[in-house]
Structure formats: C-alpha cells, structure tokens
Write a structure and sequence with these properties.
By secondary structure, the protein is α+β, with helices and mostly antiparallel strands. Helix content is 39%, strand content 23%.
Length: 180
Amino acid sequence: EMIDVSIGKIAPLSTSNFLSLSYKKTTFNNYKTYLKNTNNFSNWDSIYKVLNSDYNFNLSELADYINEIGFFTISNTTFYYLKTDEPHNASSILNHINDSTETYISEKRNYYKIHLDNLFQLLADKLFTENKNYYLSTGDYFIFASDTTQLHNINSSLEEGNYLENNSVYSDYKINQFSE
C-alpha cells in the first residue's frame, strides 16, 4: 500500500532531515510483539498500565488514530509529530495526560505539556530517543518539542507558510519516491 508522505505540510523550509513513517494499529501491535520477542515487554507494559490507572490514558486507543509518525530537525533541534485523520479524538485522548497546570497560551496558539515525556518511545522505541513533552496541534498534526520556545518557533514558521513542500528538492523527492 502506497502512503503519501505529508511531513512537507508542517516541516519548515529550513528542515535539515526528517523521518516520516506510516503508522497504524497493526504497527502498534507489531511493536508490542517485537518487545515480547526481545524480552523488553514487561517494562513497557508496566508504564502502559500506570498510564491507564493513574491518568485513564490508553496508548492503544491513541494508536488507533495515528496515521503517520515521525520527526524533523531544524538547526539541531528535533521535533516529533503525529498525524491523524481524527484530531479531535486524538486530542481528547491526549487530554488525559495533559498537565493542566502548564497550558501556555501564546498569541492565538495553545501549547500543552503532558505528564509523559517518552510518549514516542512507547509508540516506536529507539527511533525516538529524546524526551518531548510539550506540544501544539495544527490541523491533523500534533507537533512535540522539548519546550514552548521551540513550539513558538515552529508556530511562526507555520503561520508564515514556510513549508518544506514549497522546496523544489523536496517536491522532486516526493514525485520520485516510488518510481522504479
């Protein structure tokens, strides 16, 4: 199945590298199987259970709504992102782990802090090594960073329309990514 890479709609023109992966419920289930086969499941499962009991947060339910997961880097700062076709449902699930004492409003955008700093490691492990527990949502995307200053900088790029998809090299890449 061919999946359209859509990171160019959120990553700024100054992006130096990126990784964009299709993500489905089966991806999540395969990841759990991988953890079981490598004897790493018990630690992951204990975190999963604590999140469910302490915050009523169901990681599996969030995985149901994810279509794409990835990261992009700008000036040595890496951002993680999730894409969903159902942002309202994904937002509702993330609200369970939001730290309500740390919601930041900057101009027209809300930045949120979640109680969990390793969300991406729980979804895809070693692909995501940094802790990112602040996020903003824009359309179908949730962009995660280490702090609100980084989110503000990304938000400025988004508002200015400086997207990677406007770069001719990236456009050529997209056109030729599935050519034989």
